[in-house]
């Protein structure tokens, strides 16, 4: 009996001391309540990105007092090496969990702005030259690519730095947790989202995208903005999954 216990204990110790060299298991964050569906069974995590940019809205107060969402624009940075438990580069869990907030509050919007100090991007030339994201004293998060809506309105993630692409449609949403970062304008966090490839052959290596741990991005009321287009800053994690 005793020896069996000792053997079991020795096995545990071996796992624990081996783990610093092994990549961690990447576990999609939970809202703490009802969660989005799990990724397809044979998928693996291709990248975890920080997205930092704007959510677009339009108001037509004759039709509704609340803004309707019209799209988004964001720059994507590779957060994968900082996942807790990653040998050498992994962050402490609390630092990881607040990485979207750190990007939102700690870095200027990585877009060419239409008006200095505003949140709207230059329509014809929204993205500056690729640059890594520097947050505090962390190692820089490498530039991964861009998130935008294609001309036909399809949410698109072009991970140009690694040759992957997701052209996806919204499958499901969950409200952000009540304690989510309400963002620069204090309007609240937009919902967590599951997006899937609709099978049009426009994606490369990615078939499932999650937007989770969102900070900011929710619309102001139309009574505040007046009619027309406006943009609200946000940052989030995007988890990209694809076949092995
Ligand atoms: C938007 O970008 C274009 C191309 O770089 C530039 O010519 C134009 O002046 C910019 N517009 C604003 C409002 O900054
Ligand atoms: C979002 O708004 C910006 C202006 O702030 C514009 O440049 C961009 O094309 C818009 N994108 C979408 C998808 O609505
Ligand atoms: C969401 O994805 C599941 C699994 O592919 C599918 O069965 C369901 O019809 C999708 N729902 C919507 C609203 O797209």
Folded structure, characterized:
The protein contains four helices and nine strands. 14% of the residues lie in helices and 33% in strands. Strand 1 (43-59) and strand 2 (68-78) form a beta hairpin. By secondary structure, the chain is an alpha+beta fold. The chain has a nine-stranded antiparallel beta sheet with strand order 5-4-3-2-1-9-8-7-6, with helices on one face. The chain has helices at residues 2-18, 93-97, 99-106, 222-225; strands at residues 43-59, 68-78, 142-149, 155-159, 164-167, 169-174, 192-196, 208-216, 228-243. The protein starts with a helix and ends with a strand. The structure holds 2-acetamido-2-deoxy-beta-D-glucopyranose (3 copies). One 2-acetamido-2-deoxy-beta-D-glucopyranose (NAG) is lined by residues 171, 196.
The helix content is 10-25%
Distance between the termini: 42 Å
Mean pLDDT: 92
- Structure class: alpha+beta
Low-confidence stretches: 1-18
Number of strands: 9
Shape: globular
Q: Please count the helical segments.
A: 4
Portion in beta strands: 25-35%
What ligands are attached or bound here? 2-acetamido-2-deoxy-beta-D-glucopyranose
Give a summary of the structure in a few sentences.
Residues 1-18 form the signal peptide. With 244 residues, the chain is of the alpha+beta class.
């Amino acid at each position: 009996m005793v020896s069996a216990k000792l053997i079991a204990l020795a096995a545990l110790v071996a796992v624990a001391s081996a783990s610093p060299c092994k990549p961690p298991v990447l576990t999609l964050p939970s809202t703490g309540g009802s969660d989005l569906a799990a990724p397809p069974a044979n998928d693996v995590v291709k990248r975890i990105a920080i997205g930092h940019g704007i959510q677009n809205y339009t108001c037509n107060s004759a039709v509704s007092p609340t803004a309707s969402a019209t799209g988004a624009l964001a720059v994507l940075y590779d957060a994968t090496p900082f996942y807790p438990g990653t040998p050498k580069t992994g962050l402490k869990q609390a630092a990881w969990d607040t990485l979207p907030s750190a990007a939102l509050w700690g870095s200027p919007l990585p877009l060419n702005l239409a008006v200095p100090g505003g949140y709207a991007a230059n329509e014809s030339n929204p993205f500056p030259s690729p640059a890594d994201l520097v947050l505090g004293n962390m190692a820089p998060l490498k530039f991964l690519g861009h998130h935008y809506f294609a001309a036909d309105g399809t949410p698109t993630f072009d991970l140009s730095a690694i040759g992957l692409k997701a052209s996806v449609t919204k499958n499901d949403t969950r409200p952000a947790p009540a304690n989510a970062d309400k963002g620069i304008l204090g309007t609240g966090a937009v919902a967590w989202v599951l997006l899937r490839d609709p099978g049009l052959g426009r994606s490369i290596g990615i078939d499932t995208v999650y937007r989770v741990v969102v900070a900011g991005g929710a619309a102001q009321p139309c009574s505040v903005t007046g009619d027309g287009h406006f943009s609200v800053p946000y940052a989030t994690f995007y988890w990209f999954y694809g076949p092995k």
